Amino acid sequence: MLGHHIEFRYCRTVASGLPCRKVLDCWFETLDVRSFIDNNFTSEEQEKIFTPPMDKVSSILELIEKARSRSQNE
Q1: Residue 2 domain-assigned?
Q2: Residue 3 lies in a domain
Q3: Does residue 55 form part of some domain?
Q4: pTM above 0.90, yes or no
Q5: In angstroms, rounded to a whole number, what is the distance separating the alpha carbons of residues 55 and 28?
Q6: Structural domains of the chain, count
Q7: Residue 16 is part of which domain span?
Q8: Which residues contact residue 45 at a Cβ distance below 8 angstroms, ignoring those fewer than 6 apart?
């Protein structure tokens, strides 16, 4: 995702202490990433890791709705 060489340490902690969702794609040729994930993260954490991010339009609409809610509560 960054487009250059980085250390595995970065990839395994980039998402609020969880691995990047692309970690399997990037590191499968170098090490057994699937085993690392299975041995070090719960099924709930793995679900967070591999759930695709919200698309940009949905994300923007969610932010707008949150801002509207905040302004109505003030």
Answers
A1: no
A2: no
A3: yes
A4: no
A5: 26
A6: 1
A7: 8-73
A8: 18
Q: What is the 3-state secondary structure (H, E, C) of 33-62?
A: HHHHHHHHCCHHHHHHHHCCCCCHHHHHHH
Structure tokens at 67: 């801002």
Euclidean distance between CA atoms 18 and 49, whole angstroms:
7
pLDDT in tens, 7-50: 888 888 888 889 999 999 989 999 999 999 999 999 999 999 99
32 contact partners, CB below 8 Å, separation of at least 6: none
Tokens of 45: 């954490």
Residue 34 lies in a domain: yes
Residue 34 CB partners (closer than 8 Å, separation 6+): 24, 28
Backbone angles phi, psi at 72, to 5 degrees: -75, -30
Overall residue count recorded for the chain in this entry: 74
